[in-house]
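User: My collaborator sent over this chain with a note saying "see what the structure looks like." That's all I know about it. Can you take a look?
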Amino acid sequence: MASLMEEMVNTLSEELNYYKQLLELAKTKTKVIVDNDTEQLQQLTEQEQILASRLLRLEKKREEKIQDIALVINKSPDELTLNNLIALLKGQEKEQDALNAIREDLVGTMAQLKVVNNQNQELINQALDYIDFTINAIRTSKSLPQTASYEGRGTVAEHQTNDNRMFDAKQ
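Assistant: Without extra context I'll predict from the sequence alone. Here is the result:
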């Protein structure tokens, strides 16, 4: 059981490391979104995908360890949350403290990651709203009088085009 718990701690530590890397990428992404650097944003997204695939692999490994621990202690894997695993380690202060520290760090990192990701999502939504506004403004300006010319006696004759296309297809 001790080696299983050690493997669990190692797996969770590795997961925590990747989540911290994701958090740093998310923070960098905030600046990149504000700076409107689409090239850098693409690179960060690719790095996030790599980390996400590594996290998925570690998550499967962690689930396997939970299955193994559940088999050894004759409990359902569904019952074995981190809090329950920590409680099972009564009398093993070193392992209990290590697992508890990782749990707290994971919870804190995940909370920060959620806040930064929500902020990034809001920034992206604002950028998309701005783009939509700009496109609508361009379309609207196309329907306004394009030219004005004077007729005899000083009256203005307006010539309005009904062409609401955004791009000139003749080019």
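A starting point for your reply to your collaborator: The chain is about 75% helix and 5% strand.
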